Protein backbone atom coordinates (compact mmCIF):
# COMPACT_ATOMS: atom_id res chain seq x y z
CA UNK A 1 0.00 0.00 0.00
CA UNK A 2 2.80 2.41 0.98
CA UNK A 3 4.67 1.42 -2.18
CA UNK A 4 1.60 2.19 -4.30
CA UNK A 5 1.27 5.64 -2.73
CA UNK A 6 4.94 6.39 -3.42
CA UNK A 7 4.51 5.39 -7.06
CA UNK A 8 1.38 7.52 -7.27
CA UNK A 9 3.19 10.56 -5.86
CA UNK A 10 6.05 10.06 -8.30
CA UNK A 11 3.65 9.85 -11.23
CA UNK A 12 1.84 13.00 -10.11
CA UNK A 13 5.16 14.82 -9.72
CA UNK A 14 6.22 13.74 -13.22
CA UNK A 15 2.91 14.91 -14.70
CA UNK A 16 3.16 18.26 -12.89
CA UNK A 17 6.72 18.68 -14.21
CA UNK A 18 5.58 17.91 -17.76
CA UNK A 19 2.73 20.44 -17.54
CA UNK A 20 5.05 23.13 -16.16
CA UNK A 21 7.67 22.36 -18.81
CA UNK A 22 5.09 22.62 -21.61
CA UNK A 23 3.73 25.90 -20.19
CA UNK A 24 7.22 27.40 -20.00
CA UNK A 25 7.92 26.33 -23.60
CA UNK A 26 4.62 27.82 -24.73
CA UNK A 27 5.42 31.08 -22.95
CA UNK A 28 8.79 31.42 -24.68
CA UNK A 29 7.31 30.37 -28.04
CA UNK A 30 4.65 33.07 -27.78
CA UNK A 31 7.30 35.58 -26.71
CA UNK A 32 9.37 34.73 -29.80
CA UNK A 33 6.32 34.86 -32.08
CA UNK A 34 5.36 38.27 -30.73
CA UNK A 35 8.88 39.69 -31.11
CA UNK A 36 9.18 38.38 -34.67
CA UNK A 37 5.75 39.69 -35.65
CA UNK A 38 6.62 43.11 -34.27
CA UNK A 39 9.92 43.14 -36.20
CA UNK A 40 8.44 42.15 -39.56
CA UNK A 41 5.40 44.39 -39.16
CA UNK A 42 7.77 47.26 -38.43
CA UNK A 43 9.88 46.44 -41.52
CA UNK A 44 6.81 46.44 -43.73
CA UNK A 45 5.52 49.67 -42.23
CA UNK A 46 8.84 51.44 -42.71
CA UNK A 47 10.06 50.10 -46.04
CA UNK A 48 7.09 48.74 -48.02
CA UNK A 49 4.08 50.52 -49.45
CA UNK A 50 1.51 48.07 -50.78
CA UNK A 51 -0.58 49.13 -53.75
CA UNK A 52 -2.29 45.80 -54.21
CA UNK A 53 -4.45 46.35 -57.32
CA UNK A 54 -3.18 46.73 -60.86
CA UNK A 55 -5.70 49.49 -61.57
CA UNK A 56 -4.25 51.58 -58.74
CA UNK A 57 -0.61 50.97 -59.64
CA UNK A 58 -0.85 51.06 -63.44
CA UNK A 59 1.48 48.03 -63.52
CA UNK A 60 1.16 44.47 -64.73
CA UNK A 61 2.15 43.22 -61.28
CA UNK A 62 1.18 44.14 -57.70
CA UNK A 63 2.68 47.55 -57.02
CA UNK A 64 4.87 47.15 -53.99
CA UNK A 65 7.03 50.19 -53.39
CA UNK A 66 10.02 48.72 -51.56
CA UNK A 67 12.99 50.64 -50.20
CA UNK A 68 15.64 48.12 -51.23
CA UNK A 69 18.62 50.25 -50.21
CA UNK A 70 17.35 50.69 -46.65
CA UNK A 71 16.64 46.97 -46.34
CA UNK A 72 20.16 46.20 -47.54
CA UNK A 73 21.59 48.67 -45.04
CA UNK A 74 19.71 46.76 -42.37
CA UNK A 75 20.96 43.37 -43.63
CA UNK A 76 23.55 42.98 -46.40
CA UNK A 77 22.33 39.42 -47.07
CA UNK A 78 19.01 40.79 -48.34
CA UNK A 79 18.24 39.55 -51.87
CA UNK A 80 14.59 40.38 -52.50
CA UNK A 81 11.02 40.57 -51.27
CA UNK A 82 8.66 37.59 -51.55
CA UNK A 83 4.99 38.41 -52.07
CA UNK A 84 2.37 35.64 -52.28
CA UNK A 85 -0.99 37.45 -52.08
CA UNK A 86 -3.23 34.38 -51.82
CA UNK A 87 -1.48 33.16 -48.67
CA UNK A 88 -0.77 36.65 -47.28
CA UNK A 89 3.01 36.04 -47.42
CA UNK A 90 4.99 39.27 -47.66
CA UNK A 91 8.52 39.12 -46.26
CA UNK A 92 12.12 40.04 -46.99
CA UNK A 93 14.36 37.21 -48.18
CA UNK A 94 18.04 36.79 -47.39
CA UNK A 95 20.67 34.43 -48.74
CA UNK A 96 22.55 32.34 -46.24
CA UNK A 97 26.35 32.28 -46.24
CA UNK A 98 26.41 29.21 -44.00
CA UNK A 99 23.95 26.32 -43.93
CA UNK A 100 20.90 27.11 -41.74
CA UNK A 101 22.42 30.48 -40.81
CA UNK A 102 18.97 32.06 -40.62
CA UNK A 103 17.15 29.11 -39.10
CA UNK A 104 16.81 30.96 -35.79
CA UNK A 105 17.91 34.47 -36.73
CA UNK A 106 15.52 37.17 -37.88
CA UNK A 107 16.16 39.79 -40.53
CA UNK A 108 17.74 42.21 -38.06
CA UNK A 109 20.05 39.50 -36.70
CA UNK A 110 18.17 38.80 -33.46
CA UNK A 111 17.96 35.24 -32.12
CA UNK A 112 14.38 34.07 -32.56
CA UNK A 113 12.73 30.72 -33.33
CA UNK A 114 10.77 32.38 -36.13
CA UNK A 115 13.97 32.95 -38.10
CA UNK A 116 13.85 34.55 -41.54
CA UNK A 117 12.89 33.51 -45.06
CA UNK A 118 16.17 32.55 -46.67
CA UNK A 119 17.57 31.22 -49.91
CA UNK A 120 19.70 28.14 -49.50
CA UNK A 121 23.43 28.47 -50.01
CA UNK A 122 23.35 27.01 -53.56
CA UNK A 123 20.55 29.21 -54.89
CA UNK A 124 21.10 32.22 -57.13
CA UNK A 125 21.00 35.53 -55.24
CA UNK A 126 19.34 37.16 -58.28
CA UNK A 127 16.63 34.48 -58.52
CA UNK A 128 17.79 33.42 -61.97
CA UNK A 129 19.02 29.91 -61.21
CA UNK A 130 17.50 26.84 -62.78
CA UNK A 131 16.25 25.90 -59.32
CA UNK A 132 16.17 28.35 -56.41
CA UNK A 133 14.85 27.45 -52.96
CA UNK A 134 13.44 29.61 -50.16
CA UNK A 135 13.09 28.09 -46.70
CA UNK A 136 10.82 29.33 -43.91
CA UNK A 137 9.40 28.05 -40.65
CA UNK A 138 5.95 26.47 -40.41
CA UNK A 139 4.88 28.85 -37.65
CA UNK A 140 1.89 27.86 -35.52
CA UNK A 141 0.45 31.36 -35.74
CA UNK A 142 0.44 31.19 -39.57
CA UNK A 143 3.31 33.66 -40.02
CA UNK A 144 6.40 33.08 -42.18
CA UNK A 145 5.56 29.88 -44.14
CA UNK A 146 2.90 28.76 -41.65
CA UNK A 147 0.17 29.44 -44.21
CA UNK A 148 1.62 26.98 -46.76
CA UNK A 149 0.07 24.08 -44.85
CA UNK A 150 -3.41 25.39 -45.69
CA UNK A 151 -2.83 24.06 -49.22
CA UNK A 152 -2.22 20.51 -47.97
CA UNK A 153 -5.32 18.63 -49.02
CA UNK A 154 -5.98 21.46 -51.50
CA UNK A 155 -8.28 24.44 -51.49
CA UNK A 156 -10.52 24.19 -54.52
CA UNK A 157 -10.15 27.90 -55.25
CA UNK A 158 -6.37 27.95 -55.20
CA UNK A 159 -5.69 27.12 -58.86
CA UNK A 160 -8.24 29.61 -60.21
CA UNK A 161 -7.58 33.16 -61.39
CA UNK A 162 -4.40 34.71 -60.07
CA UNK A 163 -4.39 32.79 -56.79
CA UNK A 164 -1.43 30.60 -57.77
CA UNK A 165 0.80 33.56 -58.64
CA UNK A 166 3.63 34.74 -56.42
CA UNK A 167 6.21 37.46 -56.93
CA UNK A 168 9.81 38.22 -56.08
CA UNK A 169 10.97 41.85 -56.11
CA UNK A 170 14.70 42.50 -56.51
CA UNK A 171 16.68 45.74 -56.94
CA UNK A 172 15.78 46.10 -60.62
CA UNK A 173 13.37 43.27 -61.50
CA UNK A 174 10.00 41.82 -60.59
CA UNK A 175 9.61 38.09 -61.24
CA UNK A 176 6.20 36.49 -61.50
CA UNK A 177 5.93 32.75 -60.78
CA UNK A 178 3.00 30.37 -61.09
CA UNK A 179 2.60 27.49 -58.65
CA UNK A 180 2.20 24.19 -60.47
CA UNK A 181 2.88 21.60 -57.76
CA UNK A 182 2.89 20.94 -54.04
CA UNK A 183 3.25 17.84 -51.89
CA UNK A 184 4.64 16.40 -48.66
CA UNK A 185 8.16 15.02 -48.91
CA UNK A 186 11.23 14.54 -46.72
CA UNK A 187 14.42 16.51 -46.19
CA UNK A 188 17.04 15.54 -48.75
CA UNK A 189 14.52 14.26 -51.28
CA UNK A 190 14.54 15.02 -55.00
CA UNK A 191 12.45 18.11 -54.25
CA UNK A 192 15.73 19.83 -53.30
CA UNK A 193 17.66 18.80 -56.40
CA UNK A 194 20.60 20.88 -57.54
CA UNK A 195 19.86 21.61 -61.21
CA UNK A 196 22.82 22.54 -63.36
CA UNK A 197 22.02 21.17 -66.81
CA UNK A 198 19.11 20.61 -69.21
CA UNK A 199 19.00 16.89 -68.41
CA UNK A 200 18.99 17.57 -64.66
CA UNK A 201 16.18 20.09 -65.19
CA UNK A 202 14.11 17.53 -67.11
CA UNK A 203 14.75 14.87 -64.44
CA UNK A 204 13.72 17.33 -61.76
CA UNK A 205 10.44 18.15 -63.51
CA UNK A 206 9.75 14.40 -63.92
CA UNK A 207 10.28 13.91 -60.18
CA UNK A 208 7.85 16.73 -59.39
CA UNK A 209 5.19 15.33 -61.73
CA UNK A 210 5.42 11.91 -60.06
CA UNK A 211 4.92 13.41 -56.60
CA UNK A 212 2.53 16.26 -57.37
CA UNK A 213 -0.60 16.39 -55.21
CA UNK A 214 -2.53 18.50 -57.73
CA UNK A 215 -3.26 18.32 -61.43
CA UNK A 216 -0.62 20.10 -63.48
CA UNK A 217 -2.13 23.30 -64.95
CA UNK A 218 -2.65 23.07 -68.70
CA UNK A 219 -0.85 26.36 -69.41
CA UNK A 220 2.44 25.24 -67.84
CA UNK A 221 5.18 24.65 -70.42
CA UNK A 222 8.67 23.51 -69.40
CA UNK A 223 10.16 23.45 -72.91
CA UNK A 224 12.08 26.70 -72.31
CA UNK A 225 13.30 25.41 -68.95
CA UNK A 226 12.37 28.57 -67.07
CA UNK A 227 13.57 29.05 -63.48
CA UNK A 228 11.87 26.98 -60.81
CA UNK A 229 11.33 28.54 -57.38
CA UNK A 230 10.60 26.18 -54.49
CA UNK A 231 9.14 27.23 -51.14
CA UNK A 232 9.87 24.75 -48.36
CA UNK A 233 8.71 24.38 -44.77
CA UNK A 234 8.47 21.66 -42.11
CA UNK A 235 5.58 19.20 -42.01
CA UNK A 236 4.49 16.78 -39.30
CA UNK A 237 6.03 16.42 -35.87
CA UNK A 238 8.51 19.00 -34.65
CA UNK A 239 12.09 17.96 -35.31
CA UNK A 240 11.09 15.35 -37.89
CA UNK A 241 12.25 15.18 -41.49
CA UNK A 242 8.82 15.77 -43.03
CA UNK A 243 8.66 18.72 -45.42
CA UNK A 244 5.94 20.50 -47.39
CA UNK A 245 7.10 22.04 -50.67
CA UNK A 246 5.53 24.28 -53.28
CA UNK A 247 7.08 24.47 -56.75
CA UNK A 248 6.51 27.46 -59.04
CA UNK A 249 7.82 28.33 -62.50
CA UNK A 250 8.86 31.79 -63.68
CA UNK A 251 6.22 33.17 -66.05
CA UNK A 252 7.08 36.86 -66.46
CA UNK A 253 9.90 39.30 -65.77
CA UNK A 254 9.49 43.07 -65.59
CA UNK A 255 11.86 45.96 -64.94
CA UNK A 256 10.97 47.54 -61.63
CA UNK A 257 9.45 50.99 -61.94
How many strand units? Answer: 10
Query: Which shape, going by the Cα principal axes?
Result: globular
**Quick one: CATH class of the domain at 77-255?**
Mainly Beta
- Rounded to an integer in angstroms, the radius of gyration calculated over CA atoms is 21 Å
- State the fourth-level CATH superfamily of the domain at 77-255: Sortase
Number of helices: 4
Helicity range of the residues? 25-40%
What order do the strands of the largest sheet run in, or round the barrel if closed? 3-4-5-6-9-10-8-7
What is the CATH topology classification name of the domain at 77-255? Answer: Sortase, Chain: A
First and last CA, distance: 81 Å
What proportion of the residues form beta strands (DSSP E)? 25-35%
Largest sheet: 8 strands, mixed, barrel
Encode the helix/strand succession as letters: HEHEHEEEEEEHEE
Helix/strand-derived category reads alpha+beta
Uncertain parts = none
Instruction: Name the CATH architecture of the domain at 77-255.
Output: Beta Barrel
Average pLDDT, to the nearest integer? 86
Amino acid sequence: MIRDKKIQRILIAVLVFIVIFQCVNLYFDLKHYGAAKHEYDSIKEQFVNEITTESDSGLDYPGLEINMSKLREMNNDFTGWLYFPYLSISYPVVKEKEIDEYMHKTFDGSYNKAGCLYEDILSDAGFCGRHDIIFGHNMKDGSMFGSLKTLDGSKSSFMTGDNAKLYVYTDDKVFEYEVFAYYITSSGSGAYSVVGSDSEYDDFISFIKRNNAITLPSDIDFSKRESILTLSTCSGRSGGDGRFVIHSVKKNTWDRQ
